[in-house]
Design a protein that fits this description.
This protein is an alpha+beta fold. 38% of the residues lie in helices and 20% in strands. Helix 3 packs antiparallel against helix 4 and helix 5 packs across helix 12. It binds one RNA strand through helix 3 and helix 4.
Length: 426
RNA sequence: GGAGAGGUGGCCGAGCGGUUGAAGGCGCACGCUUGGAAAGCGUGUGUAGGCUUAUACCCUACCGAGGGUUCGAAUCCCUCCCUCUCCGCCA
């Protein structure tokens, strides 16, 4: 949520910056300032009336105590009440309008976010490692997974439908090893505290991080309870500190959380239908940080480095991409994607997305910090990034470490998690 | 799911229709005291919104949430949520 004061005072700038996401993005701002002015007007009237009412009511109390008649005053207060109700109603309606408008306006892109309208204009920041030397026609992860008995999508479709997978045998063990390896790295080497949160969350949490009210159709919702399945651990972990004031000296607060994630993938029909790249249910280790505003962009760089450390340890070739304004997520001010090399597709595919949300989520979720030497509490900046998506990492391992005979070489750091297993073969 | 108890400031805990944003205590901050510390004494110590150059004053709201009764509600009534205890069920 953007600051209404900022919109009030620097409307032109906000318009310009929002429209970097695409023409017309700032349209919702148009009437906002005027509605807000009317809101404050009604509020002021109501408050003046309430003040008068309070004084008179106290008078009534005094008179009654002295056994005197207070009928005239009581009638007057009744009259004021009618007016107050009207003002309150008006102010309430206007406030609801302002809030719902604000909830549907995305974050302002950072100055360092590149210009551009879509994915094709994202800017490559750096590359790491090299493409694997494969001197045969590489198989894709589905062929490899099925022939080695690691994946069973046919039966998954029978059990649940399309975009679901069963990981089997050494495939299931490999997925588990990847999760374990990522969690250990992030908690033991990169300084994150582990959290294992619920995957069902309430509406307030989803409003807090920005999935609601605008993106309800992307979420799985329970029929009989007001709960949703999380699309990412960002939701429960960021909301862990919703409505809290954190002590300044605790910042930055850093959490790593492994959860299942659930996405309806509405509107992605026909995209990545083969294999397990795009699933309704997938595993992910998420990194979330709460930081002081002045550090958030430095913290974003570190967050990216922490996510990269997993790929580097596994010696997987990847590149870092800075998303352009048009490709930026709703709540983000700046985002780096990590894209891992997939030999079968001869391209880089997203495996992590690391974002700085500045104070946008913090304002929605009311997450603040207060310095030890008093002063006003201020909104924190929130960040998060995948560290990493386990299903896609599974794909990358299969494809990049495949050998001519169809077997998979297990990267050394993973071997301890698989009882010393060095190769998966049929 | 059934029965009962309860949700008040950072914490504990009073208040149960009238100057109560809320007694008292603890904690915390600052000051005095001290060689230093403790104790003691004093002062201060919530959030949001409005107004404002102002994180000064002033005003409004907030005692789980939302409604209602009343001139007036933390206090009375209704609905919902959450916590605890017992029973049932269950991993």
């Amino acid at each position: 949520m953007l600051d209404i004061k900022l919109i009030r005072e620097q409307g032109e700038r906000v318009h310009t910056q929002l429209n970097r996401r695409g023409p017309g993005t700032s349209k919702a701002l148009d009437q906002l300032v005027e509605i807000d002015a009317r809101r404050r007007d009604a509020l002021n009237k109501s408050q003046t009336l309430k003040n008068k009412k309070k004084t008179l009511s106290a008078e009534v109390g005094k008179l009654k105590k002295q056994g005197q008649n207070a009928d005239a005053l009581m009638a007057e207060v009744k009259q004021i009440n009618a007016e107050t109700d009207e003002c309150d109603g008006k102010a309430g309606d206007l406030e609801a309008q302002v809030r719902s408008t604000l909830l549907n306006i995305p974050n302002i892109p950072s100055d360092s976010t590149p210009e551009g309208t879509d994915e094709s204009q994202n800017r490559e920041v750096r590359k790491w490692g090299e493409k694997p030397a494969i001197d045969f026609t590489p198989k894709n992860h589905l062929e490899l997974g099925e022939s080695l008995g690691l994946l069973d999508l046919k039966r998954a479709a029978k059990i649940s439908g399309s975009r679901f997978a069963v990981f089997k045998g050494q495939g299931a063990a490999l997925l588990r090893a990847l999760v374990q390896f990522m969690l250990n790295t992030q908690t033991r080497e990169n300084g994150y505290e582990e959290l294992y949160p619920p995957v069902l969350v309430n509406e307030d949490s989803l409003i807090g991080t920005g999935q609601l009210p605008k993106f309800e159709e992307d979420l799985f919702k329970l029929r009989d309870d007001k709960l949703y399945l999380i699309p990412t651990a960002e939701v429960p972990v960021t909301n862990y500190h919703r409505d809290e004031i954190l002590p300044e000296e605790s910042l930055p607060v850093k959490y790593a959380a492994y959860t299942l994630c659930f996405r309806r993938e509405a509107g992605s029909y026909g995209k990545d239908t083969q294999g397990i790249i795009r699933q309704h249910q997938f595993d992910k280790v998420e990194l979330v940080k709460f930081v002081k505003p002045e550090h958030s962009y430095d913290e974003l760089e570190k967050l990216v480095t922490d996510a990269e450390s997993i790929l580097q340890k596994l010696k997987l070739h990847y590149r870092v991409v800075s998303l352009c304004a048009g490709d930026l997520g709703f709540s983000a001010a700046k985002t780096y994607d990590l894209e891992v090399w997939l030999p079968s597709q001869n391209t880089y595919r997203e495996i992590s997305s690391c974002s700085n949300f500045t104070d946008y989520q913090a304002r929605r979720a009311m997450i603040r910090y207060k310095s030890k030497d008093g002063g006003k509490s201020e909104l924190v900046h929130t960040l998060n990034g995948s560290g990493l998506a386990a299903g896609r990492l599974f794909v990358a391992v299969l494809e990049n470490f495949q050998q001519a005979d169809g077997s998979i070489r297990i990267p050394e750091p993973l071997q301890p998690y698989l009882g010393g297993l060095e190769v998966i073969s049929s």
